[in-house]
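Sharing in case it's useful to others searching the archive later.

Someone asked me privately for the predicted structure of Copper chaperone CopZ, so I'm posting the question and my answer publicly. Question first, with the sequence:
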Amino acid sequence: MKTLQFKTNINCGGCIKAVTPTLNQEAGAGNWQVDTANPDKILTVTSDKLTAEQVVHAVQEAGFEIQPA
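And my answer, the predicted C-alpha cells:
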C-alpha cells in the first residue's frame, strides 16, 4: 500500500460529506481521511492502484481545491 497526501480546502463536515461519494468510489471507503484540524487540511489516501493525478482529478470534480502536500 502506498500513502498519498494532499493539501485541500476540505475544511468541515459538510465538505467531507460532499466529497465522500467521489473518494469512496475512487479509493474505497476507509482508505482516505481528511485532517480538518491541520491548517493545510491534509487529505491522506491509502491505495495500491490510485495515482496522485487520479486523486487530484476526483477531488477537483467534487468541487474542491487540492495540491500535493
